[in-house]
Write a structure and sequence with these properties.
- The chain is mainly beta.
- The chain is about 15% helix and about 35% strand.
- The chain has one domain: UDP N-Acetylglucosamine Acyltransferase, domain 1.
- The longest helix has 12 residues.
- It is globular and about 55 Å long.
- The protein starts with 5 loop residues before the first helix and ends in an 11-residue tail after the last helix.
Amino acid sequence: MKRLSKSRFTVLALIALLPSFLKRSCYRWFFGYKIGKRVRIGLSIIDARECTLADDVSIGHLNLIIRVQKLAIGDHVRIGFCNVIRGGDEVTLGRYSEIIRMNEINSIAEPEVVNPIDPRFLLGEGSIITTGHKIDFTDRVTIGRRSILGGRNSSLWTHNRQRTRPIEIGSFAYVGSEIRVAPGGSLPSRCIVGIGSVITSELTAEGFLIAGVPAKPVKELTEDDQFLIERKTRVDLPDDV
C-alpha cells in the first residue's frame, strides 16, 4: 500500500472526532467502506483500501489502523483501546474475536527479503489477544479458533534480517505471558504454553503443556486442563463459533 498522504490522514483524523453515527456515514461516502448495523467506532483512525465491518462491531478509543490493503472485521468483534494495526495485504478478524488493549500488530512495508512474503494477519473466530503483545506479520500469522494470546508482553516475529517464515497457532490454544515465537514457529491446537517459553520450531503434538527454552511438550494435559481450554472465550459466544 502506498504511503498515507497528509491529506488523507487529515480527513481521517477529522472523521475520528465525529460521533459514531456520523463517522459511519463519512467512511461510507468518502472511502467506500462497507459498514454493518449497530457498529460503534470511538476516537480512532481506520485507513484501508478495502474495509468491511460486519454487524455489531465495537472499536474503542485511540486505535490506529493504517496502511492496510484489505481489512475485514467479522460480526461482534471488539477492539478495545490503544491498539495499533499497521500495514499488510490483509487483516481479518473472525466473528466474536477480540483485541483488548495496547497491542501492536505490524507488517513491515517493502522489506528487504530474499523470499516471497505473504503479509496477512488472520485471527480466528472467538479468539482473544489481551494486552501489550507485539505481532509482526511481515509474513503470514494465523491464529485459530477460540485461542487466547493471554497475559502480557508476548512477541511473534515472522522475519529476521533478510528472510521471513510464517507463524501459525492452532485452535483452542492458550498462550501465556512473555512468550516468544520465532519465524517459522507453530503451535498445535488444544495446547497450553507456559510463561516465558520460546517457540523456535513447528510443534505438532496436541493436548500438551508446552514450555521451556526452546519450548517442547513437557506434560500431557489433564481432563481439567482440557476443560479450561475448551471453555468459551466470551460469555456471549454462540455455540457455532
